[in-house]
From TrEMBL:
<dbReference type="GO" id="GO:0005737">
    <property type="term" value="C:cytoplasm"/>
</dbReference>
<keyword id="KW-0963">Cytoplasm</keyword>
<dbReference type="InterPro" id="IPR018935">
    <property type="entry name" value="RIO_kinase_CS"/>
</dbReference>
<feature type="compositionally biased region" description="Basic and acidic residues">
    <location>
        <begin position="116"/>
        <end position="127"/>
    </location>
</feature>
<keyword id="KW-0690">Ribosome biogenesis</keyword>
<keyword id="KW-0418">Kinase</keyword>
<keyword id="KW-0597">Phosphoprotein</keyword>
<dbReference type="GO" id="GO:0045087">
    <property type="term" value="P:innate immune response"/>
</dbReference>
<comment type="subunit">
    <text>Interacts with CASP10. Interacts with IRF3; RIOK3 probably mediates the interaction of TBK1 with IRF3. Associated with 40S pre-ribosomal particles.</text>
</comment>
<protein>
    <recommendedName>
        <fullName>Serine/threonine-protein kinase RIO3</fullName>
        <ecNumber>2.7.11.1</ecNumber>
    </recommendedName>
</protein>
<dbReference type="GO" id="GO:0042254">
    <property type="term" value="P:ribosome biogenesis"/>
</dbReference>
<keyword id="KW-0399">Innate immunity</keyword>
<dbReference type="GO" id="GO:0004674">
    <property type="term" value="F:protein serine/threonine kinase activity"/>
</dbReference>
<dbReference type="InterPro" id="IPR000687">
    <property type="entry name" value="RIO_kinase"/>
</dbReference>
<dbReference type="GO" id="GO:0046872">
    <property type="term" value="F:metal ion binding"/>
</dbReference>
<keyword id="KW-0723">Serine/threonine-protein kinase</keyword>
<dbReference type="GO" id="GO:0051607">
    <property type="term" value="P:defense response to virus"/>
</dbReference>
Length: 495
């Protein structure tokens, strides 16, 4: 709610250019104002230095507080504009850099020492004496109570030390600054709200991989790739997900002759903020390929392992001829692969594309085939297969996002497969593909198992029994059950 009342203008232009020029205008205005009203003209000049200047300095503080209030409103407005521009778009631009920063910086206060009261040694920590219980000290007409203006003022100044360390209070004590209760209370309130604000800002900075795209270390990694000529340019962000940020880049030249870098690349940066990865532990923790390493690794390395896993899985798929991005290079938590799409426009997800019923049917059989290949030839279960992770490009379906993929013998591998089957089955049944198998039939078709249960609960129970059997077998014999590694060929379904 705007405190100045509802604005009349209904539509505010929100093209990037307009906003930018408005920014510029505001900044220019500020600059002009600063030039017209230099901050400390009066204080720096000799004749003006009288006792009254203390009040002036309080005014200055108040003015700064007011300024901060303005800045806060300005930032809020900026946030609104940012939100309006970005809407619900997955790809967002950030105005972070246009935020007003904390205007308190000490550089202008250095020359204000002039008005200090020289009766006191400014270099001696002159903490005010405490008032005893009875509420006054001294005798006769020299008695001072805690209400004494000077004592109280000094005390207030000393209490400023309790403000947050980032809150710059200056050398008020050394200067024998006497703050009135009113000013002190205002400052105190302000210090607290600033503390909260800076905590919020800080938190945002720490956790805004999505907004600011990447942290400095990642940016350096990306710079290096461009510098090495491997990438021509990084054009922008395609997607910011929970666990990764994906960029588009034009490929450059490879250092080695034998390797060709695709003309367009996708750069998947696995997020180094760990929160989202915590609940993915189960995928990697139980994957025997990573078992020995998991326990010893720090979180940063675990993130790298996701990238590594995606690379290995993509390579397996590539070798089996499954349409998927081709790995270009892996550096730490950054995976460069070929771009599925053209001219910076990524191929649409299956959920977003409108296909003719013929294409839809074609897509279905292709996916059925790919799932079988993935299981049999790559020894993998996608584990996050859905219309969100399949792209439609060049008249066929491409599989992406395989960092969480596991081998079928993973303790939960078959459950993941069943979930994949359910997603695929439901999607194509809704899309009107009459031939689409139901999730149980699809599971059998992909895995080669012949589970006969005709309802979901029993089916799932049998799946879990199979997983348990395999686990026990591994425990006792140190190897997997034969049926997991593809005797009993699954029937190949085709059009
Ligand atoms: P997430 O774990 O964030 O879902 P994905 O690997 O699914 O990560 O990538 C997120 C999005 O980025 C995808 O939905 C897709 O739109 C885009 N994307 C990812 N890889 C590529 C690629 N190789 N080519 C084109 N677009 C891609
Ligand atoms: Mn995805």
């Amino acid at each position: 709610q705007c405190p100045w009342g509802a604005p009349n203008t209904t539509s505010i232009s929100c093209s990037l250019a307009d906003v930018m020029s408005e920014q510029l205008a505001k900044e220019l205005q500020l600059e002009e104002e600063n030039a017209a009203f230099p901050e400390v003209v009066a204080v720096a000049e000799g004749p003006f230095i009288t006792g009254e200047n203390i009040d002036t300095s309080s005014d200055l503080m108040l003015a700064q507080m007011l300024q901060m209030e303005f800045d806060r409103e300005y930032d809020a407005q900026l946030r609104r504009e940012e939100k309006k521009i970005n809407g619900d778009s997955k790809v967002s631009i950030s105005f972070e850099n246009y935020r007003k920063v904390h205007p308190y910086d000490s550089d202008s206060s250095e020359d204000e020492v002039d008005w200090q009261d020289t009766r006191h040694d400014p270099y001696r920590a002159d903490k005010p004496t405490t008032t005893p219980r009875k509420g006054f000290i001294g005798k006769g007409k020299d008695i001072t109570t805690k209400h004494d203006e000077v004592v109280c003022g000094r005390k207030n100044t000393a209490r400023m030390e309790n403000f947050a360390p980032e809150f710059q209070v200056g050398d008020g004590i050394g200067m024998d600054l006497k703050l009135s209760n009113q000013v002190f209370n205002a400052l105190k309130q302000h210090a607290y709200s600033e503390e909260r604000r800076s905590a919020r800002l800080h938190e945002k900075k720490e956790h805004s991989t999505a907004e600011k795209a990447v942290d400095p270390k990642t940016r350096l990694l990306l710079y290096k790739m461009v510098n090495a000529g491997m990438l021509e340019t990084i054009t922008g962000c395609i997607s910011t997900g929970k666990e990764s940020v994906v960029f588009h880049a034009y490929g450059g030249k490879s250092a080695t002759e034998d390797k060709v870098i695709p003309p367009e690349c996708a750069i998947k940066v696995f997020k180094t903020t760990l929160n989202e990865f915590k609940n993915r532990d189960k995928y990697i923790k139980d994957d025997y390929r990573f078992k020995d390493r998991f326990s010893k690794l720090n979180p940063r390395k675990i993130i790298r392992m996701w990238a590594e896993k995606e690379m290995h899985n993509l390579t397996r798929m590539q070798n089996a001829g499954i349409p998927c991005p081709q790995v270009v290079i892996l550096k730490k938590h950054v995976l460069v692969m070929s771009f599925i799409g053209q001219d910076q426009v990524p191929a649409p997800k299956l959920k977003d594309v409108t296909l003719s019923s013929e294409d839809m049917k074609k897509a279905y059989y292709q996916i059925l085939n790919m799932m079988q290949q993935l299981y049999k030839e790559c020894n993998l279960v996608h584990a996050d297969l859905s219309e969100y992770n399949m792209l439609w490009h060049d008249g066929k379906v491409w599989l992406i996002d395989v960092s969480q993929s596991v081998e079928p013998t993973h303790p939960h591998g078959l459950e993941f497969l069943f979930r994949d089957c359910r997603n695929v089955s439901q999607f194509f049944q809704k899309a009107g593909v009459a031939e689409a198998l139901n999730e149980r039939e699809l599971f059998n078709a992909v895995s080669g198992f012949k589970i006969t249960a005709d309802n979901e609960v029993d089916f799932q129970a049998e799946i879990e029994a199979l997983e348990k059997m395999n686990e026990d077998h591994v425990q006792n014999h140190g190897k997997k059950l034969a049926m997991f590694s593809g005797d009993g060929d699954p029937p190949i379904y085709d059009e």
